[in-house]
Design goal:
The protein is of the alpha/beta class. Helix content is about 25%, strand content about 25%. The protein contains eleven helices and 19 strands. Strands 4, 6, 7, 10, 11, 18 and 19 form a seven-stranded mixed β-sheet that branches. α8 links the parallel β15 and β16. Bound molecules: zinc ion (ZN) (2 copies). One zinc ion (ZN) binds next to α2.
């Protein structure tokens, strides 16, 4: 079985043959059909996020269940599934509240199976799996509770993106911020996640959707996804332009789809008093942003974070699939390039250059 393994930060992934154990109780084995290349993988490759290595990266994927371990009833062999990169025990405080993205019912590390052991190895040495899945591999053994069955009509590349960028962006609008019809929305960053914030705002009926990026090709995508206004932050001041477009007041909502100190302050400055700013993109672990407490209080602003769009995977992934199959959610346009597993490092080069909305590795 082939997998793309990270052995050391700032080195290319190595596509190598690995050994894989079958699923134990509560686990399933999935044949991966497609997996997206995301900035979160890049954060591990470049050392922004320090995790134990070697590790198979990849967390945005879809595939076919091949085998299930003892006691598994939620999926069966032959099911088409989207991987959720967070487990959901179903019993903890957060699962009970309907906020399973924050599930704390499992104590084991996030880079091995729920019993703390690994299912993948090479030459006798364990290989960890990113987010307990690690989908840059021909097959994955993972907790069955991380697999969400979907309709079989859903095409693979599009299904893969339902595992990270689509729910993260759309959910940030519909699950976290609860944007209402007619509202004004600012989106900073128009990559895979940001474009889904834009189309989430369109689905929610936002009146004005202002998309910001440094690259004109991404702003052109944003128009296609529903932005009513675009601005290139290289040549224009985001906060000034947003205020000019909103009667001097600022927008009702602003989303940072990049994640960083400067953009956190931008979304706070771009909203009106009483508005809501949402951090969607994942920054490097060490970044801190200088918020002005005086202004937060004086202007009653809200700053929120959202992980995975605060979605409920069992409910939201099938809904997003329905929206796509009804033609109401654009995903085809996000899949700008496909790769084989052996070409995966080219996919990261393209991701960093901003050439693509989303690169997807396809298996056959
Ligand atoms: Zn991701
Ligand atoms: Zn839980």
């Amino acid at each position: 079985m082939k997998a793309a393994v990270l052995y050391a930060a700032n080195t290319p992934l190595q596509v190598v043959d690995v050994q894989q154990q079958g699923p134990k109780a509560g686990e399933a084995k999935v044949r991966v059909m497609a997996t997206g290349i995301c900035h979160s993988d890049w954060h591990i490759i470049n050392g922004d996020w320090t995790l134990p290595l070697p590790m198979v990266l990849g967390h945005e994927a879809a595939g076919i269940v091949e085998e299930v371990g003892a006691g598994v009833t939620t999926v069966k062999s032959g099911d088409h599934i989207i991987f959720s990169f967070r487990p959901q025990c179903g019993r903890c405080l957060y699962c009970s509240l309907g906020r399973s993205i924050l599930c704390d019912g499992h104590q084991s590390v996030r880079w091995a199976l729920l019993d703390g052991t690994c299912r993948m190895s090479r030459d006798g040495a364990d290989i960890f799996q990113m987010a307990r899945i690690g989908t840059f591999a021909e097959s994955v053994v993972c907790p069955a509770e991380m697999l969400v069955p979907i309709r079989k009509e859903m095409p693979w590349a599009q299904a893969a993106l339902m595992g990270c960028c689509v729910p993260t962006g759309v959910g940030a609008v519909t699950r976290c911020a609860n944007v209402e019809a007619g509202a004004s929305v600012v989106v900073i960053g128009c990559g895979g996640v940001g474009l889904n914030v834009v189309q989430g705002a369109r689905l929610a009926g936002a009146g004005m959707i202002i998309a910001c990026d440094l690259l004109d090709n991404k702003l052109a995508y944003a128009k296609e996804f529903g932005a009513t206004h675009t601005l290139n932050a290289k040549s224009e001041n985001v906060v000034e332009r947003v205020r000019a477009l909103t009667g001097g007041r600022g927008a009702d909502y602003a989303f940072d789809a990049i994640g960083g100190d400067a953009t956190t302050i931008q979304i706070l400055d771009a909203i009106r008093p009483g508005g809501t700013a949402v951090i969607v993109g994942m920054a490097a672990m060490s970044v801190r942003a200088p918020v002005t407490p005086y202004m937060m209080a004086l202007q009653e602003k809200t700053l929120k974070g959202t992980m995975y769009g605060s979605v409920r995977p069992n409910l939201d992934f099938p809904r997003l699939v329905d929206l796509y199959l009804e033609g109401r959610l654009k995903i085809d346009q996000l899949v700008s390039r496909t790769y084989t597993l052996s070409e995966i490092n080219e996919g990261f080069t393209a991701l960093r250059s901003g050439q693509v909305a989303r690169g997807v590795v396809m298996f056959n």
